[in-house]
Amino acid sequence: MTDDKELRTRRRAVWRAAERSLWRRPTDQTIGERLAGLTAGVGEVSDPGAFPDWYGDGVVEELERRVAGLLGLPAAAFFPTGTMAQQVALRCWAERTGSRTVALHPMAHPELHERGAFGAVSGLRTVHPTTEPRLPTADEVRDFEEPFGALMLELPLRDAGFVLPSWEELAAVTEAARERDAVVHFDGARLWECPPHFGRPLHEIAALADSVYVSFYKSLGGLSGAALAGPESLVAEARAWRHRYGGLLFQQFPAALAALVGLERELPKLPSYTAAAKVVAAAMADAFRESPAPWFRVHPGIPHTHQFLVWLPYPSEVLMAASLAQSEETGTTLFHFWSEESRVPGISASEVTVAEAGLEWTAEDVKEAVAEFMTRVVREDAAHEAG
Q: Pfam families given for it (predicted)?
């Protein structure tokens, strides 16, 4: 554990010191820096002279109204975590539909990253209309052999490569669910990033669903927290369950203010990040083709959001060592983390995020960085094989 902590500390120090990066992670900032940034933004989004919230009033209510307005939905409730928000939402829908079965993708966040919370905590059962690395089609939903009360769609589907369907496909799949008398819930942790791909504003996207969850830290750089938006009756019931689940905190103003700052500052920039990600992904693909890598994949080839995946046929420890050495020795951070691809032995994957820091990069900058990175990979791989 000590070695892991020391390694995390070293990585943060290296990434903070890098002169160039595609993305500056909020978690690499110090407590003082985060507090200073929050204090500097408060005046843009709220009254600094107002009193802090008390069990969800004040600035928390401001945030809830803002989210409901952006999504074009009647009401919204703030939650400390998205895990809790979605558990509550689908529990409430189960009472209304009479079915505790939720259809979702096996790569969706609740299935991979929440320790079976749907079943263990809320008594929900999950089924999978498809196992393909994409969201289900209308036919797969319409023809699925088991009944379900709710269809949950993660937009974008992160673990498949931050992928999205087309607008026509999304509209068709929601209609197919309703043909089966099922409600539609959007796991919109990153919904803020979706308008450029769909060519539709947030409220039109949200209108396809019966309820929507959004996160405040994944795209917006907030401290924590989430919101559940939907019909007033659903949100009112969700507030009651939020209390029962332990989510009605005494004060939440730092998280609420950080969310409002993110909506004010980061939300308008997300389309530019997506445009930059397309340039970066194309340049990476060109550079890997000219590199000694025996195989690679940049997915999606044209990113749907400002995030995408890169796969390379090397052990994760080799790629991590090369990435960290590049950051430390050249001042350029191209990749942060690599992990073994569980479905394909010998392949490792990295999530690439392009945000404000990445807007400065040209295609040539990316190609040069990839070439330099691959030189290090070849050297590290040879040492790994020898050792």
A: Beta_elim_lyase (PF01212)
- CB proximity list for 107: less than 8 A, separation 6 or greater: 133, 157, 158, 159, 160
**Phi, psi for 361 (deg, rounded to 5):** -80, 135
Nearest to 320 by CA among 276, 290, 350: 350
Q: How many helices (H) and strands (E) does the chain have?
A: 15, 13
CA separation for the pair 177, 85 (Å, rounded): 22
β-partners of residue 171 are: none
Inter-residue contact 188 to 203 (CB < 8 Å): no
Q: pLDDT by residue (tens digit) across 67-120?
A: 999 999 999 999 999 999 999 999 999 999 999 999 999 999 999 999 999 999
State whether 187 and 286 are in the same domain: no
Question: Which pLDDT tens digit goes with each residue over 293-322?
Answer: 999 999 999 999 999 999 999 999 999 999
pTM: 0.95
Contact 359, 273 (CB under 8 A): yes
214, 241, 265 - which closes a domain:
265
Q: How far is CA 3 from its chain centroid?
A: 28
Torsion of CA 123, 81, 64, 156, to 10 degrees: -90
386 in helix, strand or coil? helix
Residue 228: which H helix or E strand, with range? strand 226-230
Residues 294 and 223 in one domain: no
Contact in structure between 134 and 165 (CB atoms under 8 Å): yes
Strand intervals (E) in 43-200: 75-79, 101-103, 125-127, 150-154, 183-188
C-alpha span between 354 and 117 (Å, rounded): 31
Token duo for residue 182:
């099922």
Tell me which residue of 257, 273, 258, 289 sits closest to 371, measured CA to CA: 289
Which pLDDT value is given to residue 384?
87
Outline where 72-182 has alpha helix (H): 82-97, 109-113, 117-122, 138-142, 167-179
Q: How many structural domains comprise the chain? A: 2
